[in-house]
Prior knowledge:
The complex is a heterodimer of chains A (189) and B (238). Chain A has 189 residues and is mostly helical.
Amino acid sequence: MATAESAATPPTAQPTRIGPVLVAMSIGAVVSIGLGLFGRLHHPTGVAINLAGFSSGLAVKTWLTTAAFLFAIVQLVTGMAIFGRIPLKGAWLGPVHRWSGRVAVLLVTPVAVHCLYALGFADFSTRALIHSILGCLFFGAFVCKMLVLTRDDAPGWVLPVLGGLVFSLLAALFATAAVWFFVYRGFTF
Amino acid sequence: MTHRSPLLTLAAVAIFFAAMLTADFLVHPSAGSATAGAPSTTPPSPISSASPAATPTQPASTPATSRPITSPAASATKRAYQDQFPHKVVYAGRSEDGHLAIAVAVLGDRAAAYICDGRSREAWLRGTVDGDSLRLTSRQGYRLTAELDDGRLEGEVRGDGRHWKFEIRPAEKPAGLYRAKGSTTTVGWIRLADGSVVGVATGADGTSEAAPPLGSDDEAQVDGQTVQATPVNGDDEI
């Protein structure tokens, strides 16, 4: 983290405050726990609203997640460029970063709702348990990052850490569900 | 401006999330009424005070970005997927004539089943899920076909020159399908919704007899030893 600090800190004279970041983290934690509780307490229906043109609800989710992951890679690249970790420059970085993120999170939202409503917080296998936990953490981390973005006075390392966390969680969710689906079901639509 | 946009993003996601969840509650009401109060608590947002007010009344009016994903496609296909197996479920019950106890475990797109008469007839079957129907076979040539009908599993078992019709319901633990292996004997038990247990044990020589009693702790005496019976999942190798 110390390495990110030097390059990441925007040139502001303002003193940084950790308090608002802690508040954002608490709200994120509440979101994660709330999602987990809902997934656990709600009786899974096995079905939920689906999209036309795919062989099953799981296929829809797999492709939405895959698309979201591609946008997340754009996020990673533009995010690193914004903080000067890779030599890309331009006024386009910010808008591309923001909009790829919005698209990615809108793509995974119906997936998460289907997970929560139809399948619930599952622990029938290690994969399902890990996926359930990470799914809850992902939305908590996302909420936390959005809240921190509204502040100028957060320490410089906070955003890269949160961004990296959101990306890592999405990558792990992708690996524990979509990649698993492709391996076991084949490359189907 | 920049500083408000993350909040707008967050609110849009929260509203979209709540709208999809609300639509789910309307289209596929949960079987368990114990959690009927859940929808009011679910929008994941202490942040977006806008969403609880906006969504219950107008689930269709999600932000512009989300509209192509939700409404037209969802309404077009919601019926097609209504009869779908839960990801993980076990059905248990008796054949219509009462002769057989039948248990079918489903996990994802794979299914495992056990049929037995509690005396000498038994078969382990494996197969796959295809939409709302199942097709399973055993090594001895038993075939089980079934389909979902309003949450129940309806079908028939054929084998040994006979056939049995059945209509069985999802089993709530401790009801379900159990299996244990001794040093030479394999035992299957079906614990029915009324608590009764039907099972058959088959030794290495292929002879079958009534299963030993299955305790409430899922333990049984097999081949002179205490063994732990385990619940059978739809994807188990049986």
